[in-house]
Design brief:
With 127 residues, the chain is mostly beta strands. Helix content is 0%, strand content 46%. It has no helices and eleven strands.
Length: 127
């Protein structure tokens, strides 16, 4: 059974930073693209960042560009997200996702690109 488990969420002050991790089990995703999304209360799920299986392809959502770093450790089957200069509008549940396609050439920024999802981790930024 495939599982994606996020960790690292919590309460952070505005201006601070946080690091999230997403560990996968049940299947190796070292050759699949991975991504982070987030969903704020009352809003649709929003793309945050994606990283290709080669790590040469990385893309960020407009709302986090310049403040965000996505990375991966294929040996640990884990991806990471570091977000700095946090703002109250970064408050959301952060989800990691994984593509089922191996050696995918297209780095998706839509939810439909990723069939595997974690349960999410809450990030709350206080002003």
């Amino acid at each position: 059974q495939v599982q994606l488990v996020e960790s690292g969420g919590g309460l952070v002050e505005a201006g601070g930073s946080l690091s999230l991790a997403c560990a996968a089990s049940g299947r190796a995703f070292s050759q699949s693209n991975r991504a982070w999304f987030r969903q704020a209360p009352g809003k649709e799920r929003e793309f945050v960042a994606a990283i290709s299986w080669t790590t040469s392809g990385i893309t960020y959502g407009d709302s986090v560009k310049g403040r965000c770093t996505i990375s991966r450790d294929n040996v640990k089957n884990t991806i990471y997200l570091r977000l700095s200069d946090l703002k109250p509008e970064d408050t959301a549940v952060y989800y990691c996702a994984a593509d089922a396609v191996v050696f995918g050439a297209i780095l998706g920024v839509q939810e439909s690109s990723y069939p595997y999802w974690g349960q999410g981790t809450q990030v709350t930024v206080s002003s």
